[in-house]
Amino acid sequence: LPSGLLWATCNVGANAPEEYGNYYAWGEITTKDEYTEENNETYGLSYSQLQSQGYIDSNGKLTSQYDAATANWGGDWRMPTKTEMQELINNCTWTWTTQNGVNGYKVTSKVNSNYIFLPAARYRRGSSLYGAGSYGYYWSSTPSRHNVADAVLLYFNSGNQFMLYDRRRYGQSVRPVVE
């Protein structure tokens, strides 16, 4: 897909492209039973605090010890940045489809026709799963510079794909990349 970056064929915690896989709060590397402000490691930390405490590097992306892709898959796998996710939106054709009974997008490169499938796995809040089959929420490694509770994610539904900010405490999908 775009810019020589390789996108994994499935989410962290999944064994097939259409499996939802695990849900992670932003900046956390393990799953949990409840996704709340009280048990969120980065809740309320400003951008500068995230840097000083080692969650993000000088470029503003998660360090390997707090990156769910790196921590769970090892090697050079990591979570994509906000910019890389925007490139995925801009440089690919997005086709809403069903793969093995699971709704999501076939995302096809306009450059080389390679593709990935992103299941509509939505997110976890508290102990509940919301909107699975209708929406996709995929974390980037980029925190909000302005809101102490948010990070950047790729959002989609059956008609749209765009970047937005959401609460870091929510459990969301992670699709690794490697260079």
Task: Give a written overview of the molecule.
The structure is a single chain. The model has no long low-confidence stretch (mean pLDDT 95). The longest helix is centred in the middle third of the chain and has 9 residues, at 82-90. The chain is mainly beta and 179 residues long. A hairpin with a 5-residue loop joins strand 3 and strand 4 (115-119). It contains three helices and eleven strands, in the order βαααββββββββββ. The protein is globular and about 40 Å long. The strands form four sheets. It has a three-stranded antiparallel β-sheet with strand order 2-3-4. The chain has a three-stranded antiparallel β-sheet with strand order 6-5-10, with no helix packed on it. It has a three-stranded antiparallel β-sheet with strand order 7-8-9. It is 12% helix and 31% strand.
How do you describe this structure in short?
Helix content is 12%, strand content 31%. It has a three-stranded antiparallel sheet. Strands 6-5-10 form a three-stranded antiparallel sheet, with no helix packed on it. Strands 7-8-9 form a three-stranded antiparallel sheet.
Summarize the amount of helix as a percent range.
10-25%
State the shape. globular
Mean pLDDT: 95
User: Mind summarizing the main beta sheet?
Assistant: 3 strands, antiparallel
- According to DSSP, the number of beta strands is 11
Structural class of the secondary elements?
Answer: mainly beta
Question: In sequence order, what are the helices and strands, one letter per element?
Answer: EHHHEEEEEEEEEE
- How far is it from the N-terminal to the C-terminal residue, by CA? 11 Å
Percent in strands: 25-35%
